[in-house]
């Protein structure tokens, strides 16, 4: 059944998982973009009830998330993990709110749009109370693919990710700090958020392994890309790797197009692409780097070059702030898409 409730111009917005790495960024992004809410509510687990978070020049008090939390709410931005999203979905929808969910709980469910506003904003309106935010690594790749796919259809993508600690949450970011200190002080390393040491290491394992020896993170990139482009023929071959970086994900992307595409045309398309910044001047050592782009909104593209080993091939290097465009910002942009047009 189609969703008929109209979105008010000044909706009540609940940030669900407000104390987490993504939740805190939600508050920042909502404040920075002056999201026109009539009221904001911050929700987290009972552990955080009463905690105060900086917001809009003052503070917002965190409330425990319960089934009753959504009465009067219009938009519920969720980043409290997939089990919490599954548990709360019906309460949110029954309250008449739209859930914009950062977890993988509903991404591949039929009837749940999976939206990146630069790529498929029209899908946001086809919801039945739930809109899913893609995985951060997928968002980064599809934002850069979109302007290129518009000039020549992409047949196949080979992608290797270099994912920051932030993707595994606030505790994982702290673990990278702590382990780095422990390593330098010659102390025993505390390993808890990752499967192995992350300081001075890279781990080719994100999320669980599946039967075909790919990880679930890699599987997400394959199926989500097809759903977002509405094209089941795009082939994606991913390898996802955790690196000791705090909060920007990088990706090495090899693209194969149906037709010939020159580097000049690719560069022009990317320069005009929405949400893309080209940072590519190898002669002057200019290329995007994750350590230097925290806090930015765009997907940065550099190292643009021909791949002469395949027909119609291009290589590029991407960097994106995973907590912003990879999670909080993308979800807030979806919420903005739902606002009535002035
Ligand atoms: P995080 O830093 O560990 O934060 C988790 C948040 O969830 C905290 O606010 C926590 O509240 C809250 N929470 C946990 N259990 C809860 C419960 N039973 N009831 C209510 N709130 C609960 O993790 P994060 O990095 O922000 O990520 C959170 C989720 O967002 C992830 O699990 C994932 O599903 C999604 N995510 C998606 C992407 C993406 O690629 N789009 C990227 C990162 C994360 P307390 O502080 O009270 O425990
Ligand atoms: O590890 C990363 O860099 C991204 C992590 C995303 C993530 C972390 C915990 C649970 C997800 C996600 O968005 O796919 C989930 C989830 O399955 O909801």
Give descriptors for this structure.
Dihydrodipicolinate Reductase, domain 2; six-stranded mixed β-sheet; Rossmann fold; 7 helices; binds ligand 3JN; single chain; 27% helix; binds NADP nicotinamide-adenine-dinucleotide phosphate
Explain the overall architecture.
- The protein is α/β, with parallel strands linked by helices.
- The model has no long low-confidence stretch (mean pLDDT 97).
- The two termini are 27 Å apart.
- It folds into 2 domains: 135 residues, 3-Layer(aba) Sandwich (Rossmann fold); 185 residues, Dihydrodipicolinate Reductase, domain 2 (2-Layer Sandwich).
- It has a 7-stranded mixed beta sheet with strand order 3-4-2-1-5-6-7, with helices on both faces. A 6-stranded mixed beta sheet has the order 9-8-10-13-12-11.
- The radius of gyration is 20 Å and the shape is globular.
- The chain has 7 helices and 13 strands.
- The protein binds NADP nicotinamide-adenine-dinucleotide phosphate and ligand 3JN.
- The site of ligand 3JN has 11 residues, from loops.
- NADP nicotinamide-adenine-dinucleotide phosphate binds next to helix 1, helix 2, helix 4 and helix 7.
State the CATH superfamily name of the largest domain.
Dihydrodipicolinate Reductase, domain 2
What form results from the Cα inertia axes?
Answer: globular
Number of strand elements: 13
CATH domain class of the largest domain: Alpha Beta
Strand content: 15-25%
Radius of gyration of CA atoms, rounded to a whole number? 20 Å
CATH architecture of the largest domain: 2-Layer Sandwich
Biggest sheet, spatial arrangement of strands: 3-4-2-1-5-6-7
Q: Roughly how many Å apart are the termini?
A: 27 Å
| Unreliable spans | none
Largest sheet: 7 strands, mixed
């Amino acid at each position: 059944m189609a969703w008929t409730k109209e979105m008010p111009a000044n909706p009540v917005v609940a940030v669900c998982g407000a104390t987490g790495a993504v939740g805190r960024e939600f508050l920042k992004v909502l404040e920075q973009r002056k999201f026109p809410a009539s009221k904001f509510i911050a929700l987290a687990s009972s552990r955080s009830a009463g905690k105060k978070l900086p917001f809009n020049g003052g503070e917002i008090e965190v409330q425990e998330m319960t089934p009753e939390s959504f009465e009067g709410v219009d938009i519920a931005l969720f980043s409290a993990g997939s089990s919490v999203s599954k548990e709360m979905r019906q309460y949110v929808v029954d309250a008449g709110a739209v859930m914009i969910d950062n977890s993988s709980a509903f991404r591949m469910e039929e009837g749940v749009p999976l939206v990146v506003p630069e790529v498929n904003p029209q899908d946001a309106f086809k919801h039945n109370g739930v809109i899913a935010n893609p995985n951060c690594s997928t968002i980064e790749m599809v934002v850069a693919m979109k302007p290129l796919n518009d000039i020549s259809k992409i047949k196949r993508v080979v992608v290797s990710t270099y994912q920051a600690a932030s993707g595994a949450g606030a505790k994982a970011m702290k673990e990278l700090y702590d382990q780095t200190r422990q390593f330098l002080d010659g102390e025993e390393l505390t390993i808890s958020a990752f499967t192995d040491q992350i300081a001075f290491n890279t781990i080719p394992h994100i999320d669980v392994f599946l039967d075909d020896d790919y990880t679930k993170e890699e599987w997400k990139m394959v199926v989500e890309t097809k759903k977002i482009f509405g094209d089941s023929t795009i082939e994606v071959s991913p390898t996802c790797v955790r690196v000791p970086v705090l909060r920007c994900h990088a990706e090495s992307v090899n693209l194969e197009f149906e037709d010939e595409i020159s580097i000049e045309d690719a560069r022009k398309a990317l320069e005009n692409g929405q949400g893309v910044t080209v940072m590519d001047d190898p002669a002057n050592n200019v290329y995007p780097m994750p350590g230097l782009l925290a806090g930015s909104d765009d997907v940065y593209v550099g190292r643009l070059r021909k791949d002469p080993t395949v027909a119609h091939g291009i290589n590029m290097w991407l960097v994106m702030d995973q907590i912003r465009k990879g999670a909080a910002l993308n979800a807030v942009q979806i919420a903005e898409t739902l606002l009535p047009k002035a």
